């Protein structure tokens, strides 16, 4: 009975920890200051740059690095939690911006894919665009107790810390 109880406890412990390490893979390599999630490293750069300059800095940080695309709530939660533990930053650029087309402005990720409306991560407003300024997206509320981090649009000329995303090395 003691032997079976021990293994039952071990199984229960493993199952309760699994959501905390979802996506973590043995042998994945990220820099010490970055966090790993599903084949990618996410690194906060705690220096303030405009959105365009932040993208350039990401590209210089690591081969293939860009401002982070956060496509799921789980991905955003893991990255925001890492920022809370490792920095005092309250806002950080991510890789979404408004792009001008001949007829309108559309929201697009840095990799060229169009944003699909309906994210629960917006700051209670639908994204809008301005004809007078370039608009980009940051994660905000990172350190406000009891509040979930949210996306907010800002002029791209605002200087903020930023989150870079790049493939991990195995």
UniProtKB/TrEMBL annotation:
Listed Pfam families: Lectin_C
PROSITE patterns named among the record's database cross-references: C_TYPE_LECTIN_2 (PS50041)
Signal peptide annotation: 1-23
Keyword presence, Disulfide bond: yes
Domain C-type lectin: 37-165
Main location: secreted
GO CC field: extracellular region
Compartment(s) where it occurs, according to its Swiss-Prot or TrEMBL record: Secreted
Keyword terms, alphabetized: Calcium, Disulfide bond, Lectin, Secreted, Signal
GO molecular function: carbohydrate binding
Taxonomic superkingdom: Eukaryota
Family statement drawn from the similarity comment of this UniProt entry: Belongs to the true venom lectin family.
PANTHER family with a match to the protein in the record: MANNOSE, PHOSPHOLIPASE, LECTIN RECEPTOR RELATED (PTHR22803)
Protein name stated in the entry: C-type lectin 2
Lineage summary: Eukaryota, Metazoa, Chordata, Craniata, Vertebrata
């Amino acid at each position: 009975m003691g032997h079976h109880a021990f293994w039952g406890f071990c199984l229960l412990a493993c199952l309760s920890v699994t959501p905390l390490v979802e996506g973590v893979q043995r042998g994945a390599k990220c820099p010490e200051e970055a966090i790993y999630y599903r084949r990618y490293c996410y690194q906060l750069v705690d220096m303030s740059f405009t959105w365009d300059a932040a993208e350039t800095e990401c590209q210089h940080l690591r081969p293939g690095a860009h401002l982070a695309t956060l496509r799921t709530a789980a991905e955003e939660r893991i990255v925001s939690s890492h920022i809370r533990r490792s920095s005092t930053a309250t806002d950080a650029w991510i890789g979404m911006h408004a792009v001008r087309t001949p007829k309108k402005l559309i929201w697009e990720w840095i990799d060229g894919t169009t944003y699909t409306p309906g994210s629960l991560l917006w700051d209670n407003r639908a994204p809008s665009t301005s004809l007078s300024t370039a608009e980009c997206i940051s994660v905000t509320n990172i350190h406000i107790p009891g509040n979930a981090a949210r996306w907010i649009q800002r002029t791209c000329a605002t200087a903020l810390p930023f989150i870079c995303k790049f493939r991990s090395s195995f």
